[in-house]
Amino acid sequence: MRIKITESQKQKLISELSKNSAGVKEFLENVKETPGLLKHLGFNSHKSLEEYILDSNYKEFQELKKEAQGFEINKK
C-alpha cells in the first residue's frame, strides 16, 4: 500500500532537515546536553553530526532520533 503525500507535505519533509528547522535544532541541542550521546551515535564532533543530518534523508534522521531516544531511556 502506497501513501500519497501532497506537495505541501513533501516540502514540509524537505524543510525538516534544514539547519534552521526546529526539529534539527532541538535534536542537536539535546545531543549537546546529553553526555555520551554523541559518541553513542558514532560521531566525533557536533559538526560531523550536523553535516550528516543535513546530508541525510528524513528516514535516516528519524532513525538517528530513535537511536538517541533509546540511549536516553537506557541511561535512566
Task: Explain what this protein looks like in three dimensions.
With 76 residues, the chain is an all-alpha fold. The protein has one domain. It has five helices and no strands. The chain has helices at 7-16, 22-33, 37-40, 46-55, 58-75. Helix 2 (22-33) runs antiparallel to helix 4.
Work out the strand percent: under 5%
- Record field, number of beta strands: 0
The assigned structural class equals: mainly alpha
Averaged pLDDT: 86
Unreliable segments of 5+ consecutive residues: none
User: N-to-C terminal Cα separation, in Å?
Assistant: 38 Å
Overall geometry: globular
> What Rg is obtained from the alpha carbons, in whole angstroms?
14 Å
SSE arrangement:
Blueprint: H1 7-16, H2 22-33, H3 37-40, H4 46-55, H5 58-75
Overview features:
single chain, 76 residues, mainly alpha, globular
In short:
The chain has 76 residues and is mainly α.
